[in-house]
TrEMBL record:
InterPro entries: 4-hydroxybenzoyl-CoA_TE (IPR050563), HotDog_dom_sf (IPR029069), Tol-Pal_acyl-CoA_thioesterase (IPR014166), YbgC/YbaW (IPR006684). It comes from Paracoccus stylophorae. Belongs to the 4-hydroxybenzoyl-CoA thioesterase family. This is Tol-pal system-associated acyl-CoA thioesterase. It comes from the Bacteria.
Length: 133
């Protein structure tokens, strides 16, 4: 299954050439991951407060295919690729209509309050497993 959100490109998202600044795609897909988790019932603030668990990006492999521009309406698509005991791998894309502008494979690790890798809490792992294709 995949999850999607929409967002509009604002002037502040663009560079001197009038296209989305490359680093802003990382912000866009972060929003997509956050909303994906939220829609599955994973409250990251509550998770941190209750157990100290947080997610940290470990790796991103990204391809910039076409530029987005001011006022474009974009769709951020997130799809679970791989789930392990302590790691989640997602495929993400930024689309404008049917056109794919950006793709990324993102690996996040679950960390404890001291920043050490740990297993995903059981409720989080269960929620993610429900999202499997």
């Amino acid at each position: 299954m995949s999850h999607a959100i929409e967002l509009r490109v604002y002037y502040e998202d663009t560079d001197l050439a009038g296209i989305v600044y490359y680093a802003n795609y990382l912000k866009f897909i972060e929003r997509g991951r956050t909303e994906w988790l939220r829609d599955m019932g994973v409250d990251q603030m509550r998770l941190k407060a209750q157990s100290g668990h947080v997610f940290a990006v470990r790796r991103i492999e990204a391809d910039y295919l076409r530029p987005a521009r001011f006022d474009d309406l974009l769709q951020i698509v997130t799809r679970l690729q791989t789930l392990t005991a302590a790691r989640v791998v997602m495929d993400q894309a930024v689309l404008r209509g049917d056109e794919t502008l950006f793709t990324a494979r993102v690996t996040v690790a679950c960390l404890d309050g001291r920043g050490r890798p740990v297993r995903l809490p059981a409720p989080v792992a269960s929620a993610l497993r429900r999202d499997r294709p």
